[in-house]
Amino acid sequence: MNYFSSDFKLGILGGGQLGKMLLTETRKFDIQTLVLEPSEEAPARYSCNGFYKGSLMDFDTVYQFGKMVNLLTIEIENVNLDALDKLEEEGLPIYPSPKTLRLIQNKGKQKDYYVSNDIPTSPHQRFVDLNDLRNALAKDELEFPFVWKCAQFGYDGNGVKICRSALDLVKLPDVECIAEEMVPFKNELAVIVARSVSGEVKTYPVVEMEFHPEANQVEYVICPARIDEKVAQKATEVALKVSEAFHHVGLLAVEMFQTENDEILVNEVAPRPHNSGHYSIEASYTSQFENHLRAILNLPLGNTDSKVAGIMVNLVGEEGFSGQVVYENIEKIMAINGVTPHIYGKRETRPFRKMGHVTIVNEDMTEARRIAEEVKNSIRVISSPLTPKGGI
Ligand code: ADP
Asked: Where would I find the ATP-grasp domain in this sequence (predicted)?
């Protein structure tokens, strides 16, 4: 198949920042793309060859979109899977496969899959709704503390709550959910595995994640993780095992916990480019986005090694500001060597909304970490004075 400067069309479900960054690579290779996305204002709207506004959960919309392309991929997991099943039956290559997406879309099914494939993960119980969970508590089949997670459609921490007592249950939505044993972890790690259609596999170095204590969003992603070589090896092996178990094609980001006694437990996976791999655009020989493309098009995978130490800082909307976004001090951070901001192209900021990220690269990790903190303390994602607090 000739993908380059040809009539071949790659379809992407979702037009957010991940789609936008993937499109940088399709532009580089001159591969045509069509994007389906519900929001007209989406970050990916300009860099694709065709932008289609429509619901990713609607059977007909997704099916008709699939009929226009030669290969389909996703940048978000929440898409209509019945439409993907039908398209796949009719011969359209879809990566990741609808079967994998079905397992991953539901955290209960995802966790069960780890258990049945002998992949280390924290013990869990599944519940059809909140009442089911309350009954388990009443019968002492479940005990505090535990981590509640909604089974479907939770993202960026909004579907997760640490429950220490009955008080914590009050505000939980009444949806299908799981309760996980709380893991006392030293570190949150992630490994991105690239696996091509023909089974070529490469892994990116282990990264270490630091979370914002309130927003529950990643604050720094540090590559390579500052951990023992043995632990890094174990994490890589576990990630490879997960990718094998899913027969995954494309990128699989495997999020893991390093426990206090250096066990590795899989938390969850994302079957696509991931926030934990954004550093790779500047720090690696081949970015995660380029390798996702290479993997799904069955091209040789690129070198996943890093050229330099890389740290990524998420740019999230500051609390108390809503409206037309302003990146305060962006010139100041751009004056520092090795600092590159990525602005996703969302016009409006809201508290904790992911608006962009900044990558810091340096030969020396300690220096990179110092600069990352300087960046974090300098740049602010706020709104213009015309739209103060409570604005549009
Ligand atoms: P999301 O899909 O919203 O990213 P995660 O499952 O990754 O949700 O959980 C968000 C965060 O909550 C994790 O990064 C971790 O900090 C914490 N967390 C999740 N599961 C557990 C657990 N079993 N034990 C302790 N902390 C957890």
From this structure: 111-297
